[in-house]
Amino acid sequence: MMENIFFDLRTLKACGENVIIGKTVRIRYPELVEIGDNVIIDDFTYISTSFKIHSYVHISAGCKIIGGRNAFVEMHEFSTLAPNVILSAGSDDYSSGIATPLVPLEFKGNVKIGKIILNKHCIVGAGSVVLPDVVFEEGACLGALSLANKKLEKYYLYAGIPSRKIKKRNQEEIIMFENRFKRDH
User: Fold this and answer.
1) Phi and psi for 43 in degrees, rounded to 5?
2) What DSSP state is assigned to residue 24?
3) Per-residue model confidence as pLDDT tens digits over 4-54
4) How many Å apart are CA 150 and CA 136, to the nearest integer?
5) DSSP for residue 132
6) Which DSSP symbol is given to 108?
7) Measured at the alpha carbon of residue 34, what is the angle toward residues 130 and 69, in degrees to the nearest 5?
8) The pTM is what?
9) How far apart are CA 54 and CA 121, in angstroms?
């Protein structure tokens, strides 16, 4: 059997209005992907997990949203992935088992299948990696070239490997801009 990772937009679980998906985007399981309104997914992005994208989300070029059929990723309104981000909702420590997607889960050893949630107004900086079971509370951000392996608190900027809290974001200003945007659109 041969599987083709090109996909037909009609096979997506759901797709809203004003959605732009680059020609080179690949979605392995389109039946597990829901896309809201006003979403852009740039070229060279690869998605291989169950994925819910709310409205006003941007996924920049070269991102990988991975984890397999049993993992889950969700991006809420006004969240963004900068170029070359990896959201890995499935992971392996390679200490046991067979580390390949070509064998059933019972032969894999220490695999962690989880979820990643980016709440409203979250940003993941260029080249960063997010591991399974990480939640970005509303407004949390991860700086470029960082690793998130635990929860990021509401309206804080994190950076580093592993990430650590750097400074508070201006929550009032962000909400004010959101309200003005919603009023004008």
Assistant:
1) -55, 155
2) T
3) 556 788 899 999 999 999 999 999 999 999 999 999 999 999 999 999 999
4) 9
5) T
6) S
7) 60
8) 0.94
9) 12
